[in-house]
Amino acid sequence: MWRNLLGLRQISQRTISTASRRQFENRVHEKQKLFQEDNGIPVHLKGGIMDALLYRVTMGLAVFGTAYVVYELLVASMPKKQK
After folding, report:
1. How many CB atoms lie within 10 A of CB 41?
2. Which residue in 63, 81, 80, 60 sits closest to 71, CA to CA?
3. Count of H helices and E strands in the chain?
4. What gap in Å lies between CA 44 and CA 50, rounded to an integer?
5. Which of 5, 27, 47, 80 has a CB 3.0–4.6 Å from the CB of 51, allowing a cystine?
6. How many C-beta neighbours within 10 Å does residue 34 have?
7. Does an H or E element contain 36, and which?
8. Quick one: DSSP state of residue 27?
């Protein structure tokens, strides 16, 4: 057990170390150009297909939730018949 913890400690130190840090390409300029482009698309949809999908799912859930709340309010406002 102690060996496993010691090995885990060594692995975690290696992955956190700055010597093995990966270098990523800086693509901020490309993203700025994409989002500042004046092409008539709203900024929340300029990210591509995933943004459009997320937007549509969110709007669908909002409409469904609103309709469900209105339905529940109507059901709650009607008195139940007593037999």
Report:
1. 13
2. 63
3. 3, 0
4. 11
5. 47
6. 13
7. helix 28-36
8. -
